[in-house]
Amino acid sequence: MTGFNFGMMMSQENQIKQIPIDMLVPYHNHQFTLYEGERMDDMIESIHQNGVLTPIVVRPTKENTYEILIGHNRWNCAKLAGLETIPGIIKENLSDEEAEVYVIESNLIQRGFNDLKISERAKVLALRYEDMFSQGKRNDIINELMALENSSSDTKEEKQENHNSREQIAKEYGLSRNTVARLLRIDKLCDGLKKWVDDGLVSIRAGVELSYLSEENQEKVFKMSSADTDGNMRFSISESQAKELRTLYSNDSIQTMEIPKVLGENSEKKKNPPGKSVKLSKEIYKKYFDSLEKEEVSEIVEKALEMYFKQVYGM
Fold it and tell me: Which of 52, 77, 261, 262 could be joined to 43 by an S-S link, Cβ 3.0–4.6 Å?
């Protein structure tokens, strides 16, 4: 760090600079999962052999550090590989909304919509719906990210084709309107409840019901349903229980003592009798449903059954 001129680096926007690893901090609202296991090990090994080939993108902070917008995995793996600096592009004078788009769009380009966690998809859709700034501004950022991504081994045509398909997903979502609506509600959950949805501990439909509670009431439900400070669940939350909480407490503050009554003591009484399940062959599932979400599959099957019984039995 001796002799490093922070002011000189900050004043040279869009030039690639070698930034000290210990001057970098994660994006303050970073909600995307970092690589783990073999994928992380592969990146570390690549950095050992070739260094960091694609620069990260950062913005300066008031604390004389740099906030990472793009490249959290490269930064993390570079640290683990023992690097002291990493190539970075410094973006000055970004609004918080613009910074958010850099983070969201880069993850879409690199991983694709369907590879994101449920809460990450919800965040993407919410950002698009909020229309934080003009589509023209977003396109400028996307084009910049595409140019940066083209510095890797993929050809420009391959990257553009990939991006166009993802842009189509982002535009039309490849989802039913009901699924899009549910994901937009999931984005309104508190962080703890979002994690439970991501982990499959709370269903999307139950999460939707809980999203109508105030932020204060959501936090109460999360704390009372947590078994420990790590966020492990004490009470499960079914869709019917979430609906009851929404009905009882959407307008009034939840009394802490009431939550166990809904989620715990009466949980056995509230359970619906188990339904019968029908399994589809792998061939049929792959042929019709391979690219769809579980919620979408259920909706399609329900509509198909309605049409069948109407035509055959007049029901």
Answer: 77
